[in-house]
Write a structure and sequence with these properties.
Length: 222
């Protein structure tokens, strides 16, 4: 294989994982060459963790909402790791394969889940529909749940929960250019929180999450 002739790499990626829904989040990674076969990685990942029991149902007006959901959990993961080349690309094409070990703290941000709920009095002719943090114990009348409120409600009241994460991954790099990088990172993520995040009512919430993930990335080298 060819000898690496660059020292720095900056890449951005879109993440897909088994606990984050359709698109899990985004990732940013800076890599600096230590030797010809090893790199120092500094990364930042921003993902959402969803409870496995989330169930989307139709509200009174047909607007969907997630039954019994109490909080969104957004994870900001500063990350330090090392990458080791296993197989280098041929000079003109091919795939470079490397292994990644990384980890760091997790800043978990809990955001209340809001719904539109009808508080109208049956004896009153006027309507009283309000956007409120969803509590399925209090807002138990399905006929009064109009649906989910704006996603942006609740960002003024985020609560921080700290955790730790670690990952192991295989990195497949494609492309013929030495100035750009295109690839796929596939791996396993382990994450634990000091306090159990309350994501959903009536089901068990966990302080430990494991997931399989895939990140498609593109970047520049110099």
């Amino acid at each position: 294989g060819e000898e690496e002739d660059y020292w720095d790499e900056l890449a951005v990626g879109i993440n897909f994982n088994t606990v984050g829904g359709i698109i899990g989040g985004v990732a940013f990674r800076y890599s600096n060459k230590v030797t010809n076969t090893s790199f120092r990685n500094i990364a930042l990942e921003i993902n959402e963790i969803k409870h496995s029991k989330e169930n989307r149902v139709a509200g009174y007006t047909g607007q969907p909402y997630i039954y019994a959901k109490k909080n969104h959990l957004f994870c900001v993961r500063p990350q330090y790791g090392r990458e080791f080349t296993l197989f280098n690309k041929n000079p003109k094409d091919g795939v470079r394969l490397s292994a990644i070990l990384a980890g760091g703290p997790t800043l978990g941000f809990l955001k209340r889940y809001y719904i539109d709920y009808d508080f109208s009095d049956v004896n009153s002719s006027g309507s009283d529909i309000r956007s409120v943090p969803y509590d399925p114990v209090i807002h138990s009348d399905f006929g009064k749940v109009y649906g989910a409120s704006s996603f942006f409600n609740g960002f003024d009241d985020l609560r921080l929960t700290m955790g730790l994460h670690a990952k192991i991954a295989a990195n497949f790099e494609f492309g013929k250019s030495k100035k750009t990088v295109t690839g796929v990172e596939a791996g396993f993520m382990f994450e634990t929180f000091a306090k159990t995040p309350e994501l959903i009512e009536y089901y068990e919430n966990s302080s430990v999450y494991t997931s399989v993930y895939l990140t498609l990335y593109y970047g520049l080298r110099w």
